[in-house]
């Protein structure tokens, strides 16, 4: 996309969904204010079903007793899309990016995320297709979705992102209608390859693909340090200052609210 940008890489491990969602909001606000540079969060969640803004609650097929017994939290959130599953063995990527220097094009951003997933999967010899080739979203292997995408873009700053099934227990998807799509399946890297795949190997592939697609120079930063900076610490030298032209512009000039 042109100029290589410094991007914080945050890898906090297993994080409860609501805590990670709040951290996204804090980092997005800090990115808009110029307190932090672009960020790429890569983590895992405990068992969680999330419902996007257009989700049909009927697509959660499990009853309350089953959800409680299996320890699955259900969270209604502000991304686009329907219901999906997050859990151990799945890498969830949350880019907190200012896409206005890249044109502020949300559809292009979605396609870029698909390209990240396709490139990462290629490292494992998996020929995945981007969802846009199927009039869908995400990454697909045949008729099975291997990675889901759901984002929010407000004022040119991105939140939410993608979920790539690596060693995921796919039985949890039987308790929902994934993404509201009834005639397609889900899969994982391990299921496609028929062998175990280390989670750290998949993480490295995602980081390389993200760096390539977004021309990003990833800089590992501790989770607590990033949140401290977002909550009012000193501004990094290459993050946009709050007094810059963009920070002073009305919200309408920085890009309308978008959900995709």
Would you kindly provide a brief summary of this structure?
The chain is α/β, with parallel strands linked by helices. It has 7 helices and 13 strands.
Give me the secondary-structure topology:
Elements (H helix, E strand, L loop, with lengths): L4 E10 L2 H17 L4 E7 L3 E4 L12 H7 L2 E4 L6 E4 L3 E7 L9 H17 L6 E2 L8 E3 L2 E11 L2 E9 L19 E2 L2 H5 L5 H16 L1 E5 L2 H8 L14 H4 L9 E2 L1
Parallel strand pairs: 1-2, 1-12, 3-4, 9-11
Antiparallel strand pairs: 2-6, 3-5, 6-10, 7-8, 8-9, 9-10, 9-13
Helix pairs in contact: 1-6, 3-5
Summary keywords:
single chain, globular, alpha/beta, 13 strands, BirA Bifunctional Protein, domain 2, disordered C terminus, 260 residues, three-stranded mixed sheet
Question: Could you explain how this protein is built, in words?
Answer:
The chain is α/β, with parallel strands linked by helices. The chain has one domain (5-259): 2-Layer Sandwich (BirA Bifunctional Protein, domain 2), CATH 3.30.930.10. The protein is 28% helix and 27% strand. It has seven helices and 13 strands. Strands 1, 2, 6, 7, 8, 9, 10, 11, 12 and 13 form a ten-stranded mixed β-sheet that branches. Strands 4-3-5 form a three-stranded mixed β-sheet, with no helix packed on it. Helix 2 links the parallel strand 3 (48-51) and strand 4 (73-76). Helix 1 crosses helix 6.
